[in-house]
Amino acid sequence: xxxxxxxxGRPALVAVVAMAENGVIGRDGAMPWSVPSDLKRxxxxxxxxxxxxxxxxxxxxxxxxxxxDTIVLTRSASVPFDGAIVADSPEAxxxxxxxxxxxxxxxxIVIAGGGEIYRxxxxxxxxxxxxxxxxxxxxxxxxxxxxxALWEKVFEAPAERGERDSAASxxxxxxxxxxxxxxxxx
Length: 186
Ligand SMILES: NC(=O)c1ccc[n+]([C@@H]2O[C@H](COP(=O)([O-])OP(=O)(O)OC[C@H]3O[C@@H](n4cnc5c(N)ncnc54)[C@H](OP(=O)(O)O)[C@@H]3O)[C@@H](O)[C@H]2O)c1
Known about the structure:
The protein is α/β, with parallel strands linked by helices. It has 5 helices and 10 strands; from the N terminus they run αββαβαββαβαββββ. The strands form 2 sheets. Strands 5-4-3-6-1-7-10-9 form an 8-stranded mixed β-sheet, with helices on both faces. It has a two-stranded antiparallel sheet with strand order 2-8. 30% of the residues are buried. It binds NADP nicotinamide-adenine-dinucleotide phosphate.
């Protein structure tokens, strides 16, 4: 079943993440790999969309990304970077992102991490765009487990490895299963 903005009447909530085979997404405030070809994909997947991210992730990126709205979750009142829109709860972030999506005509809101923010939104995500990095580094930030009873893998392909990439990678798309999908007929 398609889950476009029209059928749900609101923008889709989509996590975009690069994770290692062990679920690690970060270490010491950075990603423990260097895969520039995935950053290119990230740009095209997120361009023109509102993005919700944690304060630590925004600090690790070090700037607001061009062509996208950066809504940053923080419990502190100060705006960490010029151009970032501050939200003090996931609900406030969603309301701001929904408004921005409407203004932009965007059909997706990007949940951009890190670990705390993916966890906070996992139960309401509609779609996961996952780059799996062929590595299993130690880390201090992880993506929540992707339960196959709740998520259907609808696409998987190896990504072309760029010459500067520190590891090979695969790209996967998961869609949330419709409630009740998979249960035997009554
Ligand atoms: N591989 C990937 O695709 C990817 C993507 C993104 C990030 N990362 C990595 O993930 C790591 C960062 O993740 P993290 O889990 O440590 O931090 P994070 O999720 O980026 O940010 C956590 C911060 O968000 C704010 N926050 C969290 N929940 C909140 C809530 N309910 N209400 C208001 N504010 C809230 C708090 O900010 P305050 O402390 O300011 O209150 C908290 O300290 C880094 O290593 C980064 O490189 C990887």
